Write the structure tokens for this entry.
Amino acid sequence: NEPFDLRLPTPGCYLDPEKAGMDSDAVFQGMTAHLFYTLGKLATSASPHDLYMALSYAVKDRLMTRYLASQEVIRKKPQKTVAYLSAEFLIGPQLSNNLLNLGITQEAEDALKRFGIESLSTILEVEEEPGLGNGGLGRLAACYMESLASLQVPAVGYGIRYEFGIFNQLIRDGWQVEVTDKWLKGGWPWELPQPDESCFVGFGGRTESYRDDKGNYRSRWIPSEHAIGVPHDVPVLGYRVNTCDRLRLWRADATESFDFYAFNIGDYYGAVEEKVASETLSKVLYPNDGTDEGRRLRLKQQHFFVSCSLQDMLRSLEKRSIPITEFPKHWTVQLNDTHPAIAVAELMRLLIDQYQIGWEKAWNITTSSVAYTNHTLLPEALEKWDLGLFNDLLPRHLEIIYEINWRFLQQLRLRYPGDDKILQKLSIIDEEGFKSVRMAHLATIGAHHINGVAALHSDLIKRQLMPEFAALWPEKFTNVTNGVTPRRWVALSNPSLSNLLEEEVGPNWITNMELLKKLEEKKDDNNFLEKFEETKLNGKRKLSSFVHSKTGILVDPSSLFDVQVKRIHQYKRQHLNALQIIAQYLRIKNGTNKFEVPRTIIFGGKAAPGYFMAKLMIRFINGIADVVNSDPDMDGLLRVVFLPDYNVKLGEIVYPATDLSEQISTAGKEASGTGNMKFAMNGALTIGTLDGANVELRDLVKKENFFLFGKTESEIMDLKNNNYSPKTFINQCPELKEVLRLIEIGHFSNGDKELFKPLLNSLTGHDPFFVMADFEDYLNKQDVVSECWNNKKAWNKMALLNTARSGYFSSDRSIREYCESIWKVSPMPVEITCDVEELT
Ligand SMILES: [N-]=[N+]=N[C@]1([C@H](N)O)O[C@H](CO)[C@@H](O)[C@H](O)[C@H]1O
């Protein structure tokens, strides 16, 4: 394709920062200009936030050439583009990542010095992160967008621009308190509103059939309510390439922002009612991680961003005068879980009702364009929409879903004549009890591929979640194990390790993590192992001062940093970790502590506001921390910390500072996990169960470099099918008995015996996540950890081998697999030819 002609007076073709207006002086000039013209500030009176905004604008300027060039390539060259539809994009802070991917971090440091700012970190601290996601699913979408750009694959991420993201978490008297996340309050320099590319979206109303000009009977939708979707584009720059893809986030606005008639008759609320109602669509992110929300507004949000996104894709074909029937050649649509699954019905509606395409053709276009990723097996997370609500909000879509379902059931009748049971089981409509629409079935029937996010998980989807569908369409079911971007999670978060890796294997490990295998040669090199350990200590010192500044707790960087950071959920078993701590506490108190290993145990994670047991688990951990941290017997041996407001920014401090990564979910429950990958890349050892991606991690780093414990998924199944009794395990383990007794008498709740009763009753009663069954094995494995820690050389060797062998978990590998096996797309480098002289 002919190179992007750069006749525009903009800095920025990726030849060489020095030559293309990327040197520190150009950055300084850019900042000065934005302070003056954009922010109306003089350098002399600029606050750190002003300088953050000025530097961000100056950096965004330097993205624009690539951003526009990349859009031009998509516009000019009929190439299949990836559309990643996700209700969540947990993109994290942008400035440091864009500086890294542009390769001008040092230039920014130098420019800031001329404003009297000694360190870039001072400016990075003030950046608000857009909390547009809950946890793993949202962060995965962000890692994937960055890898798509770094691999030079044209892509658009489609999502919602929530005005309020995931709540900020405060800890008050040990309890989680949610605070609204006003991330936009200081302004956000990383977006480009595109109001002229807005879309209309309908809700409610009714459908009516009519005869079209060819006399065919057709159905059409007459919505009773409308909203406008205004796109806000966020550049997603690849690492040291010209590709800059975009994240298109939809903001909801009213078709009629102000009703003068209502105003004139003094009905002031009426005057803005519609505006308020519409804006609510993108007002706030639902703060649940992996549970079905089932609320009307949630379904409206899903239809809102999906309809805008599909209209946007179809419009891009019209703009390029490409026949709509060629949609599958130009767009491959990935559904990030069932949250955007309405896309199957909405694409059919747009193709049939708006573009008058016949059913079969429309179905062919849809099923050859859409693919679906499942992220959880938890029954309570599988979205099912009440039929009444669905019909009320999306009557035309329900008509189309009935037709899809009818045709599907016809197929089944042919394949399984007389087997009504399988029809009921696979139908999109769940007729049992409250009739509902099963979104996972709609996605599976409408998709050409369904993938899980780790080998075990994808296998369990086929064996447990959807065995009949897997038998029906074995070719559709596949696996793409999750990955994380090494740019943010190693190069950016852990500069001292990054420098050591570059020293040892050269700079290309950042885009080719397999190169890290070369580090294996250093596994017995004491000198190198000490350097490696030093990088970890750097991280631990940084985290220690952060812990002290946030919680007032003093922790010893030379102690074993044992970390569990993730959303609080019973299946992730933060309470199992807490019980183990009490056992350690008792051993120290009773003098039966075998290994004098000073440990700092750190927790972090938000609980969904409506999830009582998760909130009680946070209170429980803080109750234990108060007792342990105020007990002189624990000095120099045990410290427990609950770090508030765990998010991407905090993750960037925690992952490089961890010795032991806790991945202790009940086997069969954690689809993949991605924190486990970030820890291993940064040289932490994992104590974990054979669950999710832990299985592949253990295979790759080798079992001697992984602390495995616990029952396997099939052993858990056996326990479940044979009337599992937690009491059996309690009676077998005196330490566990003593731990439970201490909780019961209120030892960690100032004598209040009631506070943790719900937790105790659940653990000693039904124990749905088999905490009691795995406790003893877990406690024993922690002893193995302590023993190993006392052998520094052995520990560092194991840690090095984790980093060396975690290259597989780069999101570049995941994206390559999606491109080859599901999307059938290939990289499309963006050429920028510019006559430098002409530019500068
Ligand atoms: N929803 N959801 N699913 C999850 C996470 N909670 O966001 O998706 C993540 C991303 O696929 C998985 O790593 C994790 O195991 C799974 O529970």
